[in-house]
Amino acid sequence: MFVIIRYWGIMKRYSVIYSISIVLLCAACSSKPVATKLLQTDLTVEYNLQLLNELYSDTVYVDPWLQKPWIVKVAHDIDKEKKWSKATRSLVIAATKQSAGKVLFPLQHGGKLSFDCASMGQGRLTVQLLSPTKKIVLGEYSLSSLPFTHVQCSIPHSVADAKLVMEFQGYSKDPAFCFVANAVVKHRDNDFKKPNVVFISVDALRADAVHCIIPKYNITPNMDALAGDGAAFTRHFVVANWTRPSTIAMLSSVYGSATGVNIYYFQVSKQEKHYFYTQSGVVPLPVLFGNNGYITRSIGNNAFILDHSGIGVDLGFDDMSEYERQWEDTMDIADEVIQWITANNDKPFFLFINFNAPHNAYIPPLQYLEPLRKSIKHVHPWFRRYLGEVAYTDDYIGRVVSVLKKLNLYDNTIIVVTTDHGEVFNSVHEHSPYTDKKSIFTHGQTMYDEELHVPLIIKLPKKIFGGSKAVPYQVRNIDIAPTVCELSDIPVPDSYQGKTLMSIIAGKELQDRPLYSEGRLMYAVRIDNFKYVEKFYGFGIKPHHWGGAQVDEYYELYDLNQDPDELHNIVAVDTKKAFEMQQKLYALRFKQPENILYAKKDVRGSISVREGFFFTVESSGVVKKISRQKYMFSLKKGQRLVFSTIPSRTGCYIQSDGSIALWGYSGTALPETDGMYVFDATQPLLQKMPDDAALHLFPDELIVWTKPQKGGIQKVSEHVAISDEMNTLLKQWGYIQNGGAR
Fold first, then answer.
1. Is residue 668 located within the same domain as residue 727?
2. Is 71 helix (H, G, I), strand (E, B) or coil?
3. Is 0.90 surpassed by the pTM of this model?
4. Residue numbers of the domain that contains 102
């Protein structure tokens, strides 16, 4: 998406006219769309922008993906009994009684206009068609409060060179704000329609709970039927073991460590959000599909994808409905999904559905639990209740699919069914050696397959369906987003770290993909049916993950051919295999920005950090580890020491024997303290890559610089508190135990 801003001038005091052009470049958009999203067309804003300063709050904030003060997200309560709230991307028009606000949209031809509108403060919204020769009022609407009201009106085709004008007039001298959301002009039905996408995440769904993945309990006929019209991936794994990083991974094809958002705490700071939206390069599917003419919607129970929740980040949906009940939300979510699909069946849409069941607590309706008491015996009662919630959710997935078929949308809809993680029920895995917390009847504490091995079903559009397929190769949830892009004929963003699964579905790729997965205080690799897990202090916020010079270490190695339930840790038995798997883990894990120390003459010395620890230290010279925070080195002339730290670009202290000086790439000697040179990698002059010719210009001393690479685990200094309501919700869902995060 390219955004071109043209500054036109100044009107009155503090009033500004802006014109925004959003140009969409995509092969899939070459044919005329069935509808035009007005917030993605040229628009001109005419009103006093300073009035908006009185609007922004925790529930009304600038849309983080468009970064314009007149495009906001409005979070509003709809039904407190159902614990249902909504966040809506809106155009905001500010006005008083003395000064109206106006927005102009150019139109190429007429059609049927529909939009949702609401206000904070009382006022009147007038929608009119304005051309050089005439003005036609299409409708007038008196607004006084939230929630949103749906409006429809017809736009004549006969008016040439017209602009659609929305004008808002306040009723008093105090500022009033009109919100216009989901503004769409439907032009005509067209013969070729882009495929719709229905992306369903069933929270905490284990692989063995879905019959077409692992035939065992036979309680998922509707999910199995979807697999019959596409592909079932029987060895699909997540790259993170809890909701926020895993949801971002499946919708954005990135590892949590690439997002700038911590993997340890629930809380997300403003610093982390800013990095995520503006520097990480992450492109969630809702943003991508929205930029390609789709309307995008999320309906479900997942506070980790709400910016205003305090624990989540916005993934770019036009509209989000969030539920917070325990078991009733499944039927609530399905009911709203059915209503929404019915109302929007004539527009290309990307719909994300997040069912919270079978997440802890396990409270299925009795009609789904009672049959299992007879058919599934010799299991833990809680696991049977868990399976009851799976059967309950499967029933409502079937109801959603039935509506797609009834509306003749099914054949041209891509349906993805998957989850963010599994759930631990094996009593052997009751306690986590990584977080020192209870790990049974929950998730996010271990790297066992119970948590990582989950279902993936992709129902294909009928035009490319070549018969149902069970895929036996190991794949990852970072591979889902590029697959959806290819099926929708949308170019895959450069930021995606996974790759499309279509080559596997087509039978052109016949091998496992290596799995690298991240979690609190741990990361793992799963290759050739071996799994290696290592305790890792790099994810999170100090002091919980950084530790000091010495920390407690822990490792696991499992031969999954011989020990599929991961009961016997053989890391001390097969040390050769453990080392081999450790090297594979280190080759796949995330990268931190690298720093380079270059010797122009033989030198010995040390590098150290006082905050965090060294992530990687490599050299063609001699390097000796003293602790996590200090290394000794011996370099010959022309040799380099390459090192990275966690957090990235933390202050480093470099000491050399003798009288050898340390120079930065800026050409000046670095500052000294306590007999050590202080290397601050955040300095812009040090973030360059010198060529060999430049290195020859320096004195015969030591030279240091840092590669100009963004990303990596950042230092987060801001303390964030979450609301009592959110804290209660996290406890209710079992996320908080023993006073700490789980």
1. no
2. strand
3. yes
4. 2-186
